[in-house]
Design brief:
The chain has 10 helices and 15 strands. With 294 residues, the chain is of the alpha+beta class. The strands form 4 sheets. It has a 5-stranded antiparallel beta sheet with strand order 13-12-11-14-15, with helices on both faces. A 4-stranded antiparallel beta sheet has the order 7-10-8-9, with helices on one face. Helix 1 packs across helix 9, helix 2 packs antiparallel against helix 3 and helix 5 runs antiparallel to helix 6. It is globular, with a radius of gyration of 20 Å.
Length: 294
């Protein structure tokens, strides 16, 4: 079995540990910096290369793709999907994982609850919503994972929006609740690891588990982080992260969850390789998906 990890040129401690752990599960491991990958197209096919190595020769791709490389990463994952190469992330998950407005839009369209969310290109357009929103609220930039600001009133919202308008980016506002419980969930396949208020282990209820499983299935992501908000007996999705802080969850659960990620990918690969019927089924699904976009 061959594993390729795609990540930044400068490896983090997590990516270095991932490489070491993978040696226990895979016969061959390659770390390919995304900055060093090129895509070659010929007729109706496309293939990604790292140096002279064709990445389509690998059984599993484990992408660690940042926002800065999201567009290129999206194309890479599309190519791997065309060739039925196993990955814990899909191109859809990359698209929604780095867009703070497309995510609630997609979830709501699929009957998954999120807090009321507003998107605007300017302060003028969003001003009426600011006056009628429920506070506290969260301000986000749709194309950024950083810079979230908590707003406690319409007055504070107007001041911050005025300042951010100079950035010439769309503005996203999302309502929240004062007494809400924040729950972060790491997913590794069907296994869930919940953390309450950023510091305590948390066992998910059936409703919460069903919610995160629905998000995972919708966005086709099997190793990811899903953030929930629980308020007034309602469970809502407020975030989705394709680069979860696995060590953070591991510290709270006092177990090596990076090792569990590698083990999960190894088992998935074995199941697929030993079951040709399953392989043909996946190919059929891929063919239907691609034809639907033609």
């Amino acid at each position: 079995m061959k594993l390729c990890i795609i990540g930044p040129e400068k490896r983090s401690e997590s990516e270095i540990e991932l490489m070491e752990l993978a040696k226990k599960e895979f016969d061959s491991i390659l770390y390919a910096p995304i900055e060093m990958i090129r895509i070659e197209t010929c007729k109706e096919t496309a293939a990604p290369f790292f140096k002279n190595i064709n990445l389509l020769d690998f059984d599993v791709i484990f992408p660690q793709i940042s926002k800065r490389n999201a567009d290129f990463g999206y194309v890479l994952l599309k190519i791997f999907e065309q060739h039925n190469i196993l990955s814990p992330l899909s191109s859809e998950s990359l698209l929604y994982g780095y867009n703070e407005f497309l995510l609630p839009f997609s979830l709501n369209n699929n009957a998954i609850q999120t807090p009321r969310t507003y998107l605007s290109m300017s302060r003028t357009a969003i001003e009426k919503s600011i006056d009628t929103m429920i506070y506290p609220a969260i301000l986000k930039l749709p194309y950024s994972k950083t810079g979230t600001i908590v707003l406690d009133s319409a007055e504070s919202a107007k001041g911050v929006v005025d300042t951010l308008e100079t950035l010439k980016q769309p503005i996203t506002l999302q309502e929240t609740f004062k007494d809400a419980v924040a729950i972060s969930v790491l997913m590794i396949g069907n296994n869930t690891y919940g953390v309450k208020n950023k510091n305590k282990q948390y066992k998910l209820s059936n409703e919460e588990r069903n919610t995160v499983m629905s998000v995972s299935q919708l966005l086709k992501a099997t190793i990811c982080q899903i953030n929930l908000l629980k308020a007034n007996d309602k469970v809502m999705v407020v975030g989705f992260n394709i680069k979860p802080k696995i060590e953070f969850f591991g510290d709270i659960y006092e177990t090596n969850l990076l090792e569990k990620c590698v083990s999960y990918l190894g088992k998935r690969t074995i199941i697929r390789d030993e079951n040709p019927v399953f392989n043909k089924f996946l190919e059929w699904i891929r063919e239907i998906r691609w034809k639907s976009h033609e």
